[in-house]
Protein 1
Amino acid sequence: MIRPGVAAALMGACVLGLGLASTAFAGDVERGERISSSCIACHGPGGNSHIPAMYPSLAGQDVDTLASMLEQYRSGEIQDPQMTPQAAHLTDEDIADLAAYFAGQEPK
Ligand code: HEC
């Protein structure tokens, strides 16, 4: 059993940690939208694909999953003739912003 004072201190540390993490790493949705124009050609407007069997829908997917997939395409861990060249030039900031944007879109 953790004493209430300790629990409160731990929670405070977590909130502070999250606050710091979000300023450093959380994606900028507006920038994500701006740089998503090249993705839309295949993944559809707002990440709602017209041909989901060929181009997976990105709308509403988990933000961490999206970011991790993009990192894996960029690193070559996952290879796809269409997607690999798209991810190759992305910066960490691009990935965070794109993931935040597509995760926040309503799946249709
Ligand atoms: C030329 C077409 C094309 C473009 C442009 C494109 N993609 Fe893709 N993308 C694909 C294909 C095809 C796949 C599925 C590949 C596979 O099965 O491994 C994919 C897969 C993905 C996935 C994995 C999704 C999942 O559920 O498996 C993510 C995330 C992704 N793309 C993000 C992006 C982002 C962000 C952009 C813009 C920077 C982008 N794509 C631009 C064709 C494209």
Protein 2
Amino acid sequence: MIEQKKNKEKGRAMRRARLLWDLLCGSRRYFIICIAASFMVASCDMLLPQIIRTTIDSVIGDKETDAPGFLLRMIDLAGGVDALASKIWLIALSIVVIAALQALFRYVTITSNTRGGEVLLKGMRDRLFSHIQRLPYSWHMKNQTGDIIQRCTSDVDVIKNFVSDQLTSVFRIIILIVFSLFCMYSMDLRLATIAALSVPVIVGYSAYFYSRMSKSFLVCDEHEGVLSTIAQENLTGVRVVRAFGREVFEKDRFEKQNNIYTDAWLKLCRLLTAYWSSGDLLSGLQVALVFVFGTIFCIRGTLTEGELIAFISYSYILMWPVRRLGRMIAEMSKAGVSIDRIAHILDSPQETDKPGALCPDMRADIEFSHVTFAYEEGKEVLSDVSFKIPKGTVFGILGATGSGKSTLVHLLCRLYDLPPENGKITIGGVDIADIKASWLRKNIGIVLQEPFLFSRTLGENVKIAASNCTDEQLEEAAATACLDTTVKSFTQGWDTLVGERGVTLSGGQKQRVAIARMLLKNSPVMILDDSLSAVDTETDEKIRNALKKRFGDATVILISHRITTLMLANQIIVLDKGRIVESGTHEQLIEQNGIYKKIYDLQMKMEEAEIDA
Ligand SMILES: Nc1ncnc2c1ncn2[C@@H]1O[C@H](COP(=O)(O)OP(=O)(O)O)[C@@H](O)[C@H]1O
Ligand SMILES: [Mg+2]
């Protein structure tokens, strides 16, 4: 059991590492330069205490020089320690040169790290966005927009910060720890052991604190999420808030959540302060320990004064990497969670076509045969639905809300895949599963029930599927969709911005924009899914008459709960709870005296009442 768990953990760590390596594809070279430069910075750090030590012991004092090999060679080059006493400027110069080199390498470290970080960030965002674009519609329906956006922003940031702040430092940290301990051991075994003992203590202590802080950060993040949801809801739902006089209630709700959020931050700040101050104390104790024992050894004559000062310098140098190591260990898990969250997107399979997918002529008969479908197991939405739409005809579908009308459209466009054992949908005898998805959708123009407009100009919204159409074509489509008068009523015409930053269109206006958009696409198959529901009956009739002339030889599927809209269809089916209950022409259906007739009578009565009123 434990063995199994260990293997699973190992597998997960490997998967995370592999994905991270993969994500680092374009930015790796910058991080390698950064690591190499930070190696040089760390080496410079190591040199200074050795120069101070040699100066004190051998230039000021008269002890034999015991500096590392290459320093000895430099001293020999300058003419030995005795000569150095009269050339103090040489020592000063060496310190300046080291400082200059350090500055140069630090510059390279920071620039390459920043560049690498931005390249990594951009690469991750591009990759996620293009992957998401190719994920099936059903995936989008299952995943919340807010959550996907958070994965593409916050989680991407966490990974970038982990790489550029932590991962690149890890080499510098290890170099600094190994180098300073090595330098200490080369001077005095006992004192070096005392200094080394504190390393695991401080690393463990930092790791403990940072893991607690990560949890607090997570809590703060969650509270922030709730707070912004409240604010966002109130901004978008301002009409409801005002109309129902909920201002005070909403203000209180916001203040309550704001308090919780502030408290969470204060708690985190307390933790941070406690960590930094106690960490300073711990490091101070370590230096004090080295200092006390070093002084004792000095008095006993087993350590030189220069060595003592070098030891204290190394103890100070050791402090930063040791504390950082603890932080890195703690933050590794945070980055791991973010990598998993991104993997959830990148590992989701993209929409693919079968090998050798076809692009057949779409001006052909469409046939549904024995189609049964369920979004969730056990909840059948369509049951054994069969019908045929001869090419170039208008096909009407009538049904109550939830009867499965839009589901038929989803299946026809392959927004959801129909499992092979659940029936077949064919166009000109070719199974749509064998048709290229992009070809299928390119040739089917749809007006969705709730059209979506981008925050762009009216013209851009209409021309989405036909960017290089002529002005005449645009005007003609607008006239057919009864959109021309609306456009003329705006001072900026087609250049009017719609959506959040521009004018707000009514439901009916949006539907008309969507109809014009579909008409411009000029596809051989056109689907209008309850697209005139928000348009008044009079305009509905106008559009219907204009559309009839416009359809030409296209195959049209008209979905509506308004019988007047459907009357022009060559054939109509009535859907009830996912089953076809009646079918025929308008006249045949009226004669059948079933549901269709009942709805027809009811709607006629309502219309008369409307006219009377
Ligand atoms: N993406 C979906 N996931 C799960 N259930 C869905 C989804 N879309 C629609 N449904 C359900 O399928 C049924 C039929 O929906 P739909 O085809 O949209 O009906 P209609 O267009 O006739 O109003 C409804 O009960 C609806 O709740
Ligand atoms: Mg629908």
